[in-house]
Amino acid sequence: MSTVTIKDIARALNISTSTVSRALRGSYEINQETKELVLEYAERLNYRPNPIALSLKENRSRAIGVIVPQIANYFFSQAINGIEAIAYNRGYHVIIFQSQESYEREAANMQQAMDRKVDGLLISLSSETSDVSHLRALQEQGLPIVQFDRVSHELDTTCIVADNFGGAFAATEHLIKAGRQRIAHLTIPPWLSITQERLAGYRAALEQYGLPYDETLVRYGTFGQNETGPMVDELLALPSPPDAFFTASDRLALGCLASLHQRHIAIPDDVSLIGFTNLNAADLLNPALSTVVQPAQEIGQVAVERLIELIEKKQKAAPPSTVKIPTRLIVRESTRSVVHS
Amino acid sequence: MSTVTIKDIARALNISTSTVSRALRGSYEINQETKELVLEYAERLNYRPNPIALSLKENRSRAIGVIVPQIANYFFSQAINGIEAIAYNRGYHVIIFQSQESYEREAANMQQAMDRKVDGLLISLSSETSDVSHLRALQEQGLPIVQFDRVSHELDTTCIVADNFGGAFAATEHLIKAGRQRIAHLTIPPWLSITQERLAGYRAALEQYGLPYDETLVRYGTFGQNETGPMVDELLALPSPPDAFFTASDRLALGCLASLHQRHIAIPDDVSLIGFTNLNAADLLNPALSTVVQPAQEIGQVAVERLIELIEKKQKAAPPSTVKIPTRLIVRESTRSVVHS
DNA sequence: ATCGTTCCCGGCAACGTTTGCGGTAATAAA
DNA sequence: TTTATTACCGCAAACGTTGCCGGGAACGAT
Q1: Which fold has domain B61-161+296-325?
Q2: Quick one: what percent of chain B has pLDDT higher than 70?
Q3: CB distance B95 to B304 below 8 Å
Q4: Chosen CATH of A6-49 out of 1.10.510.10, 1.10.260.40, 1.10.472.10, 2.60.40.2470
Q5: Which nucleotide is nearest to B23 (CA to C1')?
Q6: In Å, how far are A100, A103, A231, A260, A313 from A109, measured between CA atoms?
Q7: CB-nearest partner of A285 from B77, B98, B284
Q8: Which of A246, B261, B312, B313 is most buried, with most CB under 10 Å away?
Q9: In the prediction, which pLDDT does A286 show?
Q10: d(CA B194, CA A331)
């Protein structure tokens, strides 16, 4: 109803739409008086250009698509926070898609994002995704893509990730220095890049300190519910059970903590626990949880900055590379070293 | 580059675009053979209609705007989760805006949402917002609006909220029954509807059990950082300090818990603590936190369902009303009753 | 008087799609 | 044979905006 168009202004001022258009963007070939007239009138009627018409004309949308497995996950919501803040300032909108850890939905989301003509795509892969040909197809069509957190290196895109190796190394080293010898690693699906990197950091630390790498101490979860119980049970039933747990995600850390509570295992007296997490309440847990924090917001920010750079400079942008954002080890009660008398 | 348009199909098949368009939507005035030809060809080339062109023509976008104070807040991210799931199934996209608890950004977000021609708006007000004339203006222009959680009743829209009164009543009643007499209420800005409702529930419970209502026990926070420390200090310095804390948000509950820890106040031995929250790790806190849980996801779902109803039935939709979603009291360690000997 | 400039502006097409209207054949009814 | 009906399809406008092209007026230079 009340939306003012360039035509309305043209009609009211008895000039052509092209003149109005040029006046509005301050073209040099418009009379100063006319310009002021148009500007003043547009201001008064609160004229706002129709971005949809622009999109149609310029075949772009000033929107970027963000595909994440789950919004209701503190890591991703923080990352989106970082993304949205930057994008907003740069004049881009953010359209959110959730893959719900489903390959199919992820592919459908991409199709939708393409249909909507997003100018670029930010994606963190679903845990089901091992084949990335759908992504490659879009990339080959010229869509700027930046991966973050859960990335695939089979794809030649810019990737923004936490320093998973370093974080895992630091966590494992810390446990070892606190006197732990049998360190279990509860982690996420093995085909994810971050899983491999964390596992590598874990192994490197074990090796450096002369501890054996025992495959039976490494357990892979999905992102399902209540899967830690059985994992913990199996580990504790081993002939030589673990004296520490290093978990690779928020959910696993919390699940593991809950499972240990239920089984009346004392932390850190019986076992240590450290997470690779993003919780803001880790220090309020029982016990306060040692953790390797991932700078989720910063990852989001860097990712969207790179993406916009890619969108706007297209050809002469920095070549694809992987950016590692440092992680931080925070030591709390759950990994206190226990003196064996 | 590779996007197929109706024109491409028309050219290839040597027919007009109107015929293609009609064939694609199965118009009766197109020859069966032609239809099949077009459908088959469109399928083969993976034709997908350009939603932007549609939007321009029909002056709608099949997108709904969601304005929340903060994405990185478990309540809102869960609500968005619910929203996105439903919207997706109904063919709508979700465009997210964060007001960052700023009135100005909220207003700017609305403007942007309007510019983008969202078909409807879902909003939870920023804590700074007391004047809602900007919202009213949009509503009077015919934009379907549904408020959720932080709503203003100065506006005649459908509102979806948790049962704040009931939840606060239940929490307060529970504390009283556990033997507490001086119950402090740490809450959010007083001009928010949810604040008033929770306060009313708190007062009603006090009254029902014959306890006096003491204004000095009620403290209003903003949504800033680290504001609970001073509040807790002031309360504990009262001549007759509280023996229980009832907090009105995730952040206040966690902040209060942290502040009490720092001051070495034992929970629940010295004071009780119960939150009005949405944390999924409340049972893992130290101590396990009693809480009134808000069904965030359900609130989001109901809100978007109502909004879509409003969008699609416009005139004959249900009249504005306020829907209260029940809350649930979960009792844990932090409000254990302490036997005074 | 003619030509070249400069300044300012309007017409038109285009982006992809839908839709009202008109038109052409073929067939049926008179 | 003429007329009405049916079945099928194309033309063109419209949504809001931009940009190319062209053109008129005014002016100075030749």
Answers
A1: Rossmann fold (3.40.50)
A2: 97
A3: no
A4: 1.10.260.40
A5: D9
A6: 11, 10, 33, 38, 26
A7: B284
A8: A246
A9: 80
A10: 38
The identity of residue B293, as a single letter, is V
Q: With a cut of 60, say whether residue B341 has pLDDT above it.
A: no
Window B:105-144, CB contacts with A under 8 Å = 111-112, 114-117, 141-142
pLDDT over 90 (residue B167): yes
Q: Within an 8 Å CB–CB cutoff, is residue A46 touching chain B? A: no
Decide the pairing of beta strands B328-330 and B290-293: antiparallel
Please determine whether the domains at B6-49 and B164-294+329-335 fall in the same fold group of CATH. Answer: no
* Long-range contacts, stretch B234-239, CB < 8 angstroms, 24+ apart: B235/B184, B236/B263, B236/B265
A298/B340: higher pLDDT: A298
Mean pLDDT (whole number) for A76-102: 93
CA–CA gap between residue A37 and residue A45 (Å, rounded): 12
Q: Which CATH architecture has domain A164-294+329-335?
A: 3-Layer(aba) Sandwich (3.40)
On whether the A59-161+296-324 domain is CATH 3.40.50.2300, my answer is yes
B54-94: pLDDT as tens digits: 999 999 999 999 999 999 888 999 999 999 999 999 999 99
On the question of pLDDT at A251 being above 90, the answer is no
How many CB pairs below 8 Å do chains A and B form together? 129
